[in-house]
Design goal:
heterodimer; A: alpha+beta; Transcription Termination Factor Rho, Rna-binding Domain, Chain A, Domain 1; Immunoglobulin-like; 5-stranded antiparallel β-sheet; 22 strands; B: 699 residues; mainly beta
Chain lengths: 637, 699
């Protein structure tokens, strides 16, 4: 990419630009070639697309040529401010055997609009920037011929001269001075981060791509080595992490487009590993046999070992060999009789024994509650423990049981109920095994629920508000367990955490002082619940879609009006708060918000009759399609 | 002096046996193919093949001194003795009037590499020989180690997790000498009847010395000077019969190897990583036995010759196993010893024939089968005496190799012939990444004797190797990368070419030169060795200035570039290495005899050799490894002065300047690598002289 002409090119650039402009000006009426936009500059800009064409080196000084277009491939002309970051990547093992590849920061140069280097807007969507000097020696880093280099261009966050706002855009370009890039360091994408976080951006929201972050968070650029990117990111997640830290693949997701996505297992280093395993001092030999450097790590911690140690050693494979599903259920007075099938989905065969006789089943329970349309009749769902009782009957994998003591209010017999299954099996190395054998460890199965009507199992039951998938975007796929092994966050918890729970009337904000699921979850995540004040919610709390699912009509389940079956909030002094008011005040709990709700028909701590009288008029303004639709005013993404 | 004529049958049998051993004689122009029917053997008495009875030859004694402090110089001189050392030389024979003959020979007896032999018998009937030969290989005396000879550490040793934490290291380092010495004794007898010949040969070899061994303890390792004390006995017997147009015989051999050491044990210089691993133990080469029995037959009929060879060998070892670990309770082994047995069957059929005076053909088939009959069992694996890591089963690694060969030689004229040869090589393996591998090889040689002085030949060879599906074995914990190809199993295209020319005038000057090149292309390999290119030439010349003065000179240079590809991201090849090997050998010498009234002979030789290997690894950035080379200047001069009829004095002078370096240990302190306790820098750099004075007496 060495250019012998760029020097001359620069000298005559004004004339060249003039010639180009006149060529463009004399529009021949033909549409521009794709990728060679020659048409009028973009006026509507929702997205900036920065395409780097090349980096030229002239006497060690780099010039980056790039093109900026909008979402319709129209040239974006007149971008006045931009930032250019240059960095160099040393290959894996280069700094010492066992060391990971390593970024080395050269410089960051900004035009706003004056630049340390030379900036040219070619007025056709094309731009050039020549750095102020040769990289070699900048930030005391030697430029290495043949090394992979990266240029990051940051544009946007401001407006064009005509006032058109430009979205903040980071674009990186990896290059080297003698051909194809020989090696890379592509480990995690920002999309993975943003499954839990929302639109991460740092340093005045200028930098929003991992490929940008890693260029500056390097040794020699940050004053504290704890802020080198891998160490920094690992350690930032140590406190309050909503899932299992042992599951590296939550962030280091499998992604074939990322050439180094398996580095977490393949390139163990004391820097990367030690940033989570903080009780180890490798050089001093504390918590681990002493290691002077990274050259030995992989001798013991080969990738198979590391993967198995961080993925619970094949628990997914073991769990795949066990399934408990309810195949029949019917209500007889206050008793639900049901049949459960225990099978091995891998072989497609049923286990020919009931749960109390299967040596690998440590615990298997079923809970039942009734009244899906009104959020259940009781907060005390009766249950049975299948591992401790013999079934009523059955054979060949299908066994029948009864749960008595359901609360079935008179007149609700045509409603539906829910059966929830939870349990633990024993597994090691991907295989199920005898729980009496110490080499097999207890593993929670994925909880599940099954709706039932009075005469049969049912597809439809309690409405779906959140899903295990939305919860799993931060907490992992049913990886968050409460009360032992309850992890179906979408439907299981609500069997007990329902409106039959009462709120503490003495609390400053009683709507969050209840264990009713919706209020409990809102208050945990917004940090207002007692015991959760220090929660550091990783996304934008106003992005309701992080947790809420869409209903059958495709509307997010936060849309108003609220589902009519939701009872009012019950307080322990016998008062009630109307349902919508109670929900909104989980977050909007200022006096003025309360005043507004009260004015618009909301009832705080009133009688049951008042709270259910239907005086709430929230949906008039905040309903779907209304002027202040909750779907619009929240930062739903 | 009385002269004794040698009986004819000796040389004939010798020729016949050598014809059966060496295919070089089997091309149709050997003695075996000669039309001997009309030859009157009894008239073949060699009038000049006469031997004087009595004692002839010379004996001598010498002293020598060398100033080389580096034992590596002894590889040139044959002795590592400091100061003055003595030796005995002899070369002579005694022939009795009744025809018995005794030969004796001694060469630098007294040196590590001295030799002596005596043989007696009646030529053409029987012979008994006794021999001794010393062989030695000198490595270094600079290897630094804190270990004693029994591989214990000093009493005050402080272990460390890393070499840097071994506080007593510097004070404990002592140099240890690495090298091996072998003493080989031979006893042989042969007897020759009218139509048979019997041979018996016994050899005993004892080896002692020290060599480098890596004592591994998990991720730590210490270089150790492993003591070598072992011996091998080999007994061979042959019986051959011959008749008109045929030869048949049987070869047998038994051998055994005995190691004085049953195990190598050492103290752990490092703090144990796990548990109480204060010492390590490793198995050493086990005692083992082998025998071989083979039959050879050869038939001739006219211009056709047929050769058959069948052999069977068995290798066994039942050395008692060491415990799987000496650190903590050892898992139980399935057997007390391996009780290993490997059988080899070999068979060869070869035909050579002359179709016309100009046209010869040859064909052969070769079969070799290695059958490992050792019982497989599940063995516990204890990683470097530290932790139990499951079980593994011993594998057979059986192999069957078949080769078919077809060749022809056509002589266009007295001056020009063409020799073409095709070979098909077929291998089947067990337990390797590939279970079938075959190669077709074709080579040709065109010979042109331009005139009596000039001779020219051109050789070319092409080979194509491929085989069955390449499936990395899953019998190892660390399976190969799916794109990796092991060099010895990979598809390969091979090409070789050579051009040779020689000139030999009737006058004093002769010279020869050749240029040769080869390419190996591993065309299906993405990760592994991908390409090897080599090129070289030799030139040598000889000039006889007059009857007494000769000069010679030679130069040889070879280059070889090997390309290798690897991956650091485990996806596709992303790093590449080139290893450039280069060697230069050149020399010149002169010999001047019959000076000073034919009493003085002088000789002077100079040689220079330079070998180096440069490795460069490129992953975007090119990283050359440090130096790896050996460079040697050697001057060898002598003056031999015969100051009376009986007495002579010879003076030898050797000068050597030698330097080598290997980036693996160059400038390396023993504690430079945190987890490897090394011997330090093992490079050589010396200039040394050797002076020898020999007084000889003519018998």
């Amino acid at each position: 990419m060495k250019s012998t002409t760029s020097h001359t090119l620069r000298r005559y650039l004004p004339w060249c630009v003039a010639a180009l402009l006149s060529a463009c000006g004399g529009d021949d009426g033909e549409p521009g070639n794709p990728g060679e936009p020659g048409g009028p500059p973009a006026s509507e800009i929702e997205q900036l697309i920065v395409e780097v064409n090349e980096v030229q080196l002239n006497a060690g000084v780099a010039t980056v040529n790039y093109r900026v277009t909008n979402q319709d491939d129209e040239p974006v002309v007149g971008i006045a401010s931009s930032t250019y970051i240059a960095t160099q990547l040393l290959p894996q093992g280069y700094t010492n055997a066992g060391n990971s590849s390593q970024w080395q920061y050269f410089t960051s140069e900004s035009c706003s609009p004056d630049c340390p280097g030379e900036f040219t807007d070619h007025r056709n969507g094309r731009y050039s920037y020549t750095f102020s000097a040769a990289f070699d020696g900048m930030n005391e880093v030697s430029y290495m011929a043949g090394a992979t280099q990266r240029v990051v261009i940051k544009v946007g966050g401001d407006s064009l001269p005509d006032g058109t706002p430009l979205p903040t855009t980071n674009q990186h370009y990896d290059w080297q001075d003698s051909g194809e890039v020989a090696y890379t360091r592509n480990i995690v994408t920002i999309e993975t981060c943003n499954t839990c976080h929302n639109d991460l951006a740092f340093h005045g929201s200028k930098y929003n791509e991992i490929e940008t972050c890693v260029t500056c968070h390097t040794e020699g650029r940050v004053s504290n080595n704890d802020n080198i990117f891998p160490q920094m990111v690992h350690s930032k997640h140590l406190v309050g992490y909503p899932g299992s830290l042992a599951d590296c693949q939550t962030c280091h997701a499998e992604d074939e487009t990322l050439t180094e996505h398996l580095n977490w297992a393949r390139v163990p280093t004391m820097e990367a590993c030690g940033s989570c395993h903080t009780d180890i001092n490798f050089p001093a030999g504390e918590g681990h046999p002493a290691q002077a450097d990274n050259s030995n790590c992989v001798a013991c911690h080969n990738s198979d070992w590391t993967m198995s140690a961080h993925n619970d050693g094949g628990n997914d494979e073991a769990l795949a060999q066990f399934s408990a599903t309810i195949t029949q259920a019917a209500l007889a007075n206050d008793t639900v009789n049901f049949t459960i099938r225990l099978s091995n989905p891998v072989t497609g065969e049923n286990y020919n024994a009931s749960a109390d006789e299967l040596a690998f089943v440590n615990d298997l329970r079923v809970y039942a509650n009734w009244g899906n349309s009104f959020d259940y009749a009781t907060r005390s769902a009766p249950s049975i423990k299948l591992t401790e009782i013999t079934p009523n009957g059955g054979s060949n994998g299908d066994y029948s049981y009864s749960i008595a003591g359901l609360t079935v209010p008179a007149g609700t017999e045509t409603d539906t109920g829910t059966l929830a299954i939870q349990g633990k099996v024993c597994a090691a190395d991907g295989q199920l095994g005898d729980c009496d054998d110490d080499s097999y460890a207890q593993v929670n199965i994925k909880s599940s629920t099954q709706f039932f009507a009075s005469d049969a199992i049912a597809d439809m039951g309690r409405r779906s508000v959140v899903t295990n998938e939305t919860c799993g975007s931060c907490h992992g796929d049913q990886a968050l367990n409460y009360h032992g092994s309850r992890n179906d966050l979408a439907q299981q918890c609500q069997l007990c955490h329902n409106p039959n729970m009462t709120a503490d009337a003495q609390a400053a904000n009683p709507s969050i002082a209840t264990a009713d699921y919706k209020h409990m979850i809102h208050s945990i995540h917004n940090g207002q619940r007692e015991g959760y004040e220090s929660i550091n919610y990783p996304g934008n709390i106003a992005n309701c879609a992080q947790c809420h699912a869409e209903d059958a009509a495709g509307d997010l389940t936060v849309a108003l009006p609220l589902y009519g079956g939701v009872p009012p909030l019950s307080l322990d002094d016998g008062t009630y708060t109307s349902a919508t008011t109670a929900i909104c005040s989980d977050c909007h709990n200022s006096d003025s918000a309360k005043g507004h709700m009260t004015q618009q028909g909301g009832v705080f701590m009133g009688t049951y009759e008042d709270a259910t009288a239907g005086t709430e008029s929230c949906a008039t303004c905040h309903g779907k399609g209304a002027s202040i639709d909750v779907l619009e005013v929240h930062a739903i993404n | 002096m009385k002269r004794i004529n040698l009986p004819m049958s000796l040389s004939l049998i010798a020729m016949a046996i050598s014809a059966s051993m060496s295919p070089a004689f089997a091309e149709g122009y050997g003695l075996a193919n000669a039309k001997r029917d009309k030859v009157k053997l009894d008239k073949w008495e060699c009038k000049r093949c006469v031997v004087e009875p009595g004692l002839t030859g010379s004996v001598g004694a010498g002293i020598a001194s060398n100033d080389g402090s580096d034992p590596h110089f002894a590889n040139t001189t044959g002795t590592d003795q400091d100061g003055v050392t003595g030796f005995v030389q002899a070369d002579g024979s005694y022939i009795s009037e009744s025809g018995y003959r005794t030969d004796f020979e001694a060469d630098k007896l007294g040196y590590d590499t001295g030799s002596a032999s005596v043989s007696t018998g009646r030529p053409g009937q029987y012979n008994i020989a006794l021999g001794y030969r010393g062989l030695a290989n000198y490595d270094t005396n600079r290897a630094l180690t804190p270990y004693s000879g029994s591989l214990n550490l000093p009493d005050n040793w402080q272990t460390g997790a890393t070499t840097g934490q071994m506080t007593e290291l510097d004070a404990s380092l002592k140099p240890v000498e690495l090298g091996t010495k072998r003493d080989r004794f031979n006893l042989a007898a042969n007897y020759q009847g009218s139509f048979y010949k019997a041979d018996i040969d016994y050899q005993y070899e004892q080896r002692s010395g020290k060599r480098k061994f890596s004592g591994n303890m998990l991720t730590n390792s210490a270089m150790l000077a492993q003591p070598i004390d072992d011996s091998s006995d080999t007994l061979g017997a042959k019986l051959y019969f011959n008749g008109d147009g045929w030869l048949a015989g049987i070869n047998t051999q038994v051998s055994q190897y005995k190691n004085d050491h049953q195990a190598l044990s050492w103290q752990n210089a490092f703090s144990p990583t796990f548990g109480a691993a204060y010492s390590g133990q490793s198995a050493v080469a086990p005692d083992n036995k082998a025998y071989r029995i083979a039959g050879n037959t050869q038939f001739r009929s006219g211009s056709n010759q047929m050769l058959m060879h069948v052999g069977f060998s068995r290798f066994t070892q039942d050395q008692q196993f060491l415990p799987a670990t000496i650190n903590g309770p050892t898992p139980e082994l399935p057997q007390a010893s391996l009780d290993g047995q490997v059988d080899m069957i070999e068979m060869k059929l070869k035909y050579t024939g002359r179709i016309t005076n100009e046209f010869n053909i040859r064909a052969s088939y070769d079969y070799r089968d290695r059958d490992n009959k050792t019982q497989t069992a599940s063995y516990p694996q204890v990683v470097t005496d530290s932790y139990f890591s499951g079980y593994a089963t011993n594998l057979d690694y059986d192999r069957t190799r078949q080769q078919a060969n077809l060749g022809a030689k056509y002589r266009f004229s007295r001056a020009v012939y063409l020799d073409v040869d095709y070979r098909y090589d077929h291998n089947t393996y067990s337990d390797l990444d590939r279970n079938k591998l075959n190669e077709s090889i074709i080579d040709a040689k065109l010979n042109y004797n331009i005139n009596p002085q000039w001779k020219l030949w051109l050789k070319a060879k092409a080979a194509d190797r491929s085989g069955g599906a390449y499936v990395p074995v899953d019998t190892t914990d660390n399976p190969s990368h799916p794109l990796a190809r092991k060099t010895y199993l990979a598809d390969r295209q091979h090409a070789y070419y050579a051009l040779f020319a020689s000139f030999a005038s009737e006058s004093a000057f002769s010279a020869s030169a050749n240029i040769h090149g080869a390419q190996d292309d591993y065309d299906d390999t993405l990760i592994g060795l991908t390409k090897v290119d080599s090129l070289g030439y030799d030139v040598s010349m000889h000039y006889q200035a007059n009857d007494d003065l000769t000069f010679n000179a030679f130069v040889n240079q070879d280059w070889r570039d090997s390309d290798q590809a690897g991956t650091s991201n485990f996806v596709s090849p992303n790093w590449f290495a080139t290893i450039s090997d280069e060697s230069t050998v050149l020399g010149a010498g002169m010999a001047y005899s019959n000076l000073l009234d034919k009493q003085l002979a002088l000789g002077l030789d100079y040689s220079f050799s330079d070998g180096k290997s440069d490795t460069e690894v490129t992953q975007g950035i090119s990283t050359p490894y440090q130096d790896h080379y050996a460079k040697r200047h050697n001057v060898n001069a002598y003056a031999d002065y015969q100051f009376s009829d009986k007495f002579g004095l010879r003076f030898d002078w050797i000068f050597e300047q030698y330097q080598d370096a290997d980036w693996q240990n160059a400038n390396l302190a023993p504690d430079a690598i945190p987890n490897v306790l090394t011997f330090g820098d093992l490079g050589h750099d010396y200039s040394a002289h050797y002076f020898g004075l020999t007084l000889s007496y003519q018998l």
